[in-house]
Every structure is written in C-alpha cells, then in structure tokens.
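Try it yourself: sequence plus guanosine-5'-diphosphate, in.
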Amino acid sequence: ADEIQKLRDRKRAKEHEIKDSTLPEIAIVGRSNVGKSTMLNTLTESPNTARVSSKPGLTRQLNFYRCGDKFVVVDMPGYGFAFAKEEDKTAWKELIEDYLGTRKSLKRIYVMIDARHGLKVADKEFLTMMGATSSKKFQVVLTKCDLVSPPDLARTYMVVQEELKKSFKNAMTDRILMVSSYTGAGMNTLRKDMLFACGQ
Ligand code: GDP
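Structure, out:
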C-alpha cells in the first residue's frame, strides 16, 4: 500500500510540476565534460536571459533558461561513461519518457559531441535509449572545434554523419553544427538554428 501511495504521489507531483510551458523549448544533452555548461554560458550570456527557477521533482534535474521572449533552453544532466550504473540508466529512461519523448513545447533536442572524439560508446548508448522510447528528432553539435584542425574536423563530421545515418533514424543528418565556445565560432549559427527550430 505504501508503494502504491508513493506512486500516486509521484504521478500527481509530475502532473503538477511539468506543466507545458507557453514558450518553445530546446533541450541540450551530452556526455559530461563535452563543454555543455561553457556553451550554455556563452549562449545565454545576453542580458535578456533569465534562469527560470528550478522546480521540484523530475525537473529538479533540469535547468530552464529563458532566452528573451523567444524560447527556453533546457539544460539536461550530463551522462556518464557507458551508463555503468543501473540507476543512471533508469533515471535517464524516465527523463526520456517523461520529458524528451513527450514534451509538446519541446521543439528540438541538441546532442553535444566532442569534436576530438566523435560518437563514443556512452553517446551511442544514450542515442539508442532515446531512439527506443522517443521519435523526436535530434541534431548533433560538435563542440570544442578549436581543438581540432580543419581536416580532422571535416573527417569527424563525415564519420559522425555516416554513423548517425546508419544507426539512428531520428537524427537530422543533413545539418550537423560545429561550435567553439572559446573562439565563438559557430555560435551565431547555433542561435539562428535554435530560433528556426522554434519557428521564429
Ligand atoms: P560539461 O561537463 O559538458 O558542462 O563541460 P564544461 O562546459 O564544464 O567543459 C569541460 C571542459 O572543457 C572545461 O575544462 C572547459 O573549459 C573545456 N571547454 C569547454 N568548451 C570548450 C571549447 O569550446 N574549447 C575548448 N578548447 N575547451 C572547452
């Protein structure tokens, strides 16, 4: 009976917490250390950006940043090495089922990939997990592009594109973005892309 009550409480909390927002949302995911926070800082440094207060429960793991009156960027937790812990896997499955896969105001999912490494095992595991539960499209952003030479970057781009085409049907393979938070390269394109994804 306790367990049932807990489940009921959880369901109620969820319905209460995750009200669909009126602004379009953009979710950002990636392996820990991929450069997600740095990119978010660069992206949201304009005075028009406000961090929307964290909410309890599921969304405690998510940070919402309002970019002017246009859209909200949602910072998802970083995922770890090859989902070693079963509880991490379960938590991510819930985030995919309850947020990434079903959120109506979510217009696009951006998956950050380190330009030096391309898709790693953890990325493939995450994308497989997401593809199994959700039919939402996602787009890849190669990060830290200042650390690789142009020929290496071009090679990684093609390898990643091929892997996405082969294994991940929800990937938008014709538009892989490349950014560097350090030099600012690609950041304007990313911003424009987000606006476009939000129908602006
Ligand atoms: P997160 O765990 O994905 O949030 O990663 P962080 O944003 O904390 O970045 C991880 C490390 O990569 C830090 O040491 C950053 O300074 C570095 N980093 C982040 N973005 C860039 C970038 O565009 N270029 C370079 N060279 N380093 C970066």
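One thing you can check immediately is this: The pocket of guanosine-5'-diphosphate is lined by residues 30, 32-38, 78, 143-144, 146-147, 180-182 (CB under 6 Å).
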